[in-house]
Amino acid sequence: MARNESGFTAGADGDSIASAILNALNHHDRRVRARVIEEAARAADPDLLVRAVADHRDAVRRNAAMDALVRGGVRSVPALVRALDDPDPEVVMFAASVLGKTRDREAVPHLLRLLRYEDVNIVQAAIESLGHLRAQAAVTPLIELLDRDPWLRYGAVHALGEIGDARAADPLGAVLADDEVWEMAIAALGKVRSVRAIGHLADALRSRATTPAFRAPLRALGDALRRQPAADRLSRLPSWAELAAAEPVHIRLHEVLDGLAERESSPDELELAEAAAMLVRGLHLAPLYASVVRSARSAALRPILQFWTLAIGPDAADALIAGLSDDNPGVRALACRCAGALRLQELSKPLIARLADDEASVREPAVRALAQLGAADALPALAERLLDPEPAVCAAAQEALGTCDPAAASEALLVFPRRDPAVAAAMLRVMRASPHPNQLPFLFDCIAHDDPDVRRLAVEAMAEQPDADLIEILGRLLDDPDAEVRTTTVHLLGRKRTARARDLLLERLERLERGASDVGLIVHTLVEMQGLAVASRLIELYEQHPGVALAPVLEALAELHEPAVEPLLVALLADHDRELRCLAIKALAQFASPVAIRHILAAATDPAWQVRAAVAEALGGISGAAAAAELERLALDEHAVVATTARHRLEVAHAD
Question: Which of 290, 359, 423, 526 has the lowest tally of Cβ within 10 angstroms?
Fold first, then answer.
C-alpha cells in the first residue's frame, strides 16, 4: 500500500489515484480532508464528484465533493451542467448552487432554463446562482418571478440587487408595497445603478422617517449614491426635491449623526453615518453641516466625515468655526484640516487661536492649515511654534514658515534671541527653505557660531540665497524649443526652491501649448519643491483646464494624499471621458480611505470595461472582505480583459 502526502492510500489492485481521492473525501481529520479536497479539485473526475454529491448516506463526503467542485472552477462546469438533467431533484439543486460559485459565465444559459422548473427549491438555487454570476440576461425572467411564489420573490429580489441592472429599478420599487419583502427590496434598490432607484429610496426614506425602519432606506440610499457620485444629476428628481423639504427626515439625520458621535461605532453604524453625511451634502441641508462636523467626536468616523465636509465645500465655513471651538480635540483637529484644505481665509483668526491649543493633535493641523491659507498675520504665532515641545508641531511650523513669503517670514523670525542654539537652528532650517537677502547678516553671524550644528545649517542656508538675475534667465529658458534644455531648466529651478522659481514653473504649466512630457516633469518638480504647499495652486490649475492633458496634476495630488482632491476625483467617476474615470480610480486607490474604497467598489458596475478593469486592478491592492468579494464578481465580468485582470489579482492575493 502507498500513502501520498494528502493522507489517503491507493491500493495495489489498480485503483486510480483519482478514485483514492474520492474515497478519502470523508476523512475524519479536517486538515487531511482539506488537502484531499484541494487534490480532488485538481485531479478527480468531476462526474465522479457529482456522483458523490448524489450520495445521501454520507453528508461529510457530499459536502467535501461540493467544495471540490467549486474549487475546480471551469473544469467542473460540464459535469455540473449534465447534472442539471439528473432524475434526482437534490442533485439538480446542488448542481445549480455550485454552478453559481464556479465563476464561469457559460453556466448562465443552463441556469436560466431552470427558472421554469416546478420544484421551487431548484428554481431558488438557480436564482441565487444567477445573482452571484451577475447575469444580466436573467433580469427580465427574474422580474417575472416577482409575481410568482412568495418564496421565489425573496430570491428574485436579492438576485436583482446583486445584478444591479437599471431595468430592475421600477419593478423593485413596486415590490416595496409588500411589507414582508420591503427591507430586502430596499437593500436591493441600493445596489441598482439608476437614478430611478434613488427616487424610490427617497420616497421610502420619507415615508418611514418617523419609524424604526428609517435606517434601512438611509443605508440603501448611501449605497445608491455611491453609484451616482454626481449628486447634481438628482436635482430634477421630484422625490429628491421632496426629501430636501422633509423636516422629519432632517430631524432623523441629525439624530443619527449626533447619536453616533457619542460612542465608538460598529462598521454598520459607520456606513449609516456616511449615508447620513452624503444626504446632508447632497440635499444641501446647511442646518445639519454642524452635525456632520460634530460627529468627528467618534475617531472611527473622522476619515469619512472629513471627506464629506470637504465635499460640502466653502458652505461648511460656519460649521467649521463652531468645530474649532468644540470641547472635543478630534472635532477641533478635523475643523483645522478642513478649513485649510478648503482655503477658507475667513477662518484664519480662529485657526491662529488654535496654535495655543492644549492638544498637540490640534496645534499641528492648525499650523498646516494656516500654511495652506498663507495667512500673513499668523507669521508671529507660527514662529513661536518653532519652539513647541511637540516635535511634530515644531516640524510643521518649520515647513509652514518655509512656504511663506520669505521677507515676511524673515521679519517674524529675526525677533527671536539669536545666540540660543535651539532657536538659531530652528530659524536656519526655515531660512534654508525660504531664503531672503535680509537674512544675510544673521547668516554671517551663525557661520561664526560656537555650535557646529548651527554653523552647518547656516552654510546650507547661505547656499540657498537667491540670485534674481539667474532666476529670470532660467525663467526665459522654460520656453526653449529644445526639450533637454527645458528639462535641465526645470531641474535647476527646482533646486532653487524659491517662490519665484515656483511661480515660473506654474506659469509654464498654465500655457496649454506645452508638451505632455513637460507637464509630468513640471508637476513632479513642483511637488519635490513644496509638497502640499503647492497643492492649492495645482487644484486651481486643473479646475481652470480640466481634462486628460493635466492628468499628472491629479496623479501627483493623489500621491501627496491631498484631502481636497479626493472629492474632485470622486466627481470624475461621473465624467463622460472614460480615460478620466480610469485615472480617478487609480488615484483614489492611493488614498485607500473608507470613502475612496466604497466609491471604487461602486464603480465596478461602470458601463466602460476599461473602468471596470481599472477597478479590478485597484482592488488587488486593497485588503478586506468587500474588496475580495467585488474581485470575485469582476472575475465573472462579460469582458475578457476585466475578468482576466480580476482573476489575476485574486491569484496574487491567494499566493500572498
Answer: 359
